[in-house]
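Data deposition worksheet. Section B asks for the primary sequence of the deposited chain exactly as it was used as input, without tags or linkers unless they were present during the calculation. Section C holds the resulting structure in token form. Section D is free text for depositor observations; keep each observation to a single sentence. Incomplete worksheets are returned to the depositor.
Section A, Depositor: J.P.
Section B:
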Amino acid sequence: MKRIILSLVMAFATIISAHAMCMNRTFTAYDEGEYFGKIVLTDNCECTISTVDGERFTGTYNISSNIDRGDQCQIVFYLSNGQTIKATYAWPVQGKKCILLDGFVFEASN
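Section C:
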């Protein structure tokens, strides 16, 4: 029985990792023209979120789906301090891909 459960858990983890959408991209936010912070995503689904105030969080992320111009979906950050933060990953009809988090627009810089 333990082997069956372990096999199911491993299969589920493999399915999730196979469908994970990861990317190398940096997103930067400004507040009234002044630098506010950035979100760095890596192609192994790790992230770093930092702000001008010196806050810095690391963890992993999960994007719910691939997007095309004009679309948006959910991105969830699982931070090492135990926080789970939900945000919106969007690609406007005009403009760069961005992450909408806590009232700030983090715009893709690469």
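Section D:
Residues 4-18 have pLDDT under 50 and may be disordered.
The longest strand covers residues 34-41.
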